[in-house]
């Protein structure tokens, strides 16, 4: 009997260890094996990332290293505009530090590509993405690594469902004076494109009305849900990922998919042309589009990129949500002026 118990324990341990083991070489594609061998020689990569929290970014990096032992990820997490400013400062100084740049403003990638500052690379897993996320750049210099709709949220302890905003224009109703939380387009790439969308749909008068309700303005789009969750404001805007995570965590946060359409942010990644660890960057970029990483995205409340993975339970997929029309060209051409006009209007 003791021997049977011992065998059962050993079998259980083997099962656990198998789950924790890195991917076997024979489970990798030929291209993946080649990249992994080259990446191990480099040992690590530095990731400038904007659209996730520091904790989530580190989770993505750590799960990557579990799959590919010997290659670590140094996470540098800031807001989108700050990450880009840091990267361009590195480029001007001729001191390459960033291996993968992951941001929220597509205009940054258009500029970097035009200036020949990006390495051409299409990850092998790109073909496995959902169709809306493929071919962000037809020339292959940058690619989608997260999709995060911007939605309306409210604190369920402070607002009844029937009283909650139903569309974007409801946010500027005078009844929400001193009760709204937003972010700043000068720091957040997602907020920049959201502001462009509001101007497209409703003119600058929408922002004038927003100012009149005296919104609390954070930096990142991560700030409003934190503010609402603490009960400091009642309604606001948020990335769908953050809102979903709070909602699924039984926090007093509810999500509204506005009837005039969510603003869809396709966050991109690109490898700087002078990246110190280009092979590690390529391996990590390919991993970001994998089934495993999409499962990590779902764990954090995000939309999965890989078509083989379903969205979080109880959360609609991107195909089920109305998306407001906003082109890459509109974002690229209008964000800089929008930031300046925002500062003129809101004084910050």
Based on helices, strands and strand pairing, what is the structural class? alpha/beta
Number of strands: 10
Helix-residue proportion = 40-55%
Q: What's the name of the CATH homologous superfamily of the largest domain?
A: Periplasmic binding protein-like II
Kindly describe this structure.
The protein has 348 residues and is an alpha/beta fold. The chain has 2 domains: 29-147 and 265-317, D-Maltodextrin-Binding Protein, domain 2 (3-Layer(aba) Sandwich), CATH 3.40.190.10; 150-264 and 321-346, D-Maltodextrin-Binding Protein, domain 2, CATH 3.40.190. The chain contains 12 helices and 10 strands. Strands 1, 2, 3, 4, 5, 6, 7, 8, 9 and 10 form a 10-stranded mixed beta sheet that branches. Helix 3 (54-67) links the parallel strand 1 (44-49) and strand 2 (72-77). Helix 6 (189-202) crosses helix 12 (328-346). Residues 4-11 and 13-21 have low confidence and may be disordered.
What's a quick, concise take on this entry?
The chain is of the alpha/beta class.
